[in-house]
Specification:
Structural class: alpha+beta
Order of helices and strands: HEEHEEHHEEEEH
Oligomer: single chain
Distance between the termini: 55 Å
Largest sheet: 6 strands, mixed
Number of domains: 1
Shape: globular
Strand content: 25-35%
Length: 178
């Protein structure tokens, strides 16, 4: 057992002896307990959900946390349930509420002028995306990182954020000198 990550819940693996629909409902129960019956808090802000649109009777955030884009033969994209996302459903709240110093937490400006807060658990190849609002965060999605290009993209965004923060701190310190 790796004690370094003993605070992280075990994967909630699918048991082939039960119907997948039953497993998916159990995953939803974990989600409800962690995000609907109570709210995680990060930086003294509640974390809310994207509730609309409702997908198969469940909030948009749950749908995004447990499905991934699949490109069809005709080039269209649909979302399909991803076991690896379902298995990690309990990781989300645990990571958000942890004080694990190995997390890379950074802001990322999106093209639509919205700001996201990215929580990158690099050692476990897992990322959580929250949208910043003035008094709370909205949980957008989370997923295991499967591809090298995604890791490179995250690293580039993280380095860009660090560079901007360093420049901002430098500018602030020169203001106090004059």
């Amino acid at each position: 057992m790796n004690f370094k990550f003993s605070w992280l819940p075990k994967l909630f693996e699918y048991d082939e002896l039960i119907p997948f629909e039953d497993y998916y409902e159990q995953v939803y129960e974990i989600f409800k307990k962690d995000f609907m019956e109570s709210r995680p808090i990060l930086n003294n802000k509640n974390i809310g959900l994207q509730k609309e649109p409702i997908v198969n009777g469940k909030p948009q955030t749950f749908h995004h946390m447990t499905t991934e884009d699949i490109t069809n033969k005709d080039g269209s994209i649909t979302r399909s349930i991803a076991k690896d996302r379902c298995e990690r459903i309990a990781w989300n709240r645990a990571i958000i509420e942890s004080n694990y110093s190995g997390l890379k937490i950074f802001k990322e400006k999106r093209s639509n002028n919205r700001k996201n807060l990215v929580i990158w658990f690099e050692e476990k190849d897992f990322v959580i995306i929250l949208r910043e609002a003035p008094t709370y965060y909205v949980f957008i999605t989370s997923y295991p990182i499967k591809y090298k290009h995604k890791k490179k993209q995250l690293q580039k965004s993280y380095e860009k954020y660090l560079k901007a923060e360093t420049a901002l701190k430098k500018a602030d310190s020169t203001l106090f000198l004059h």
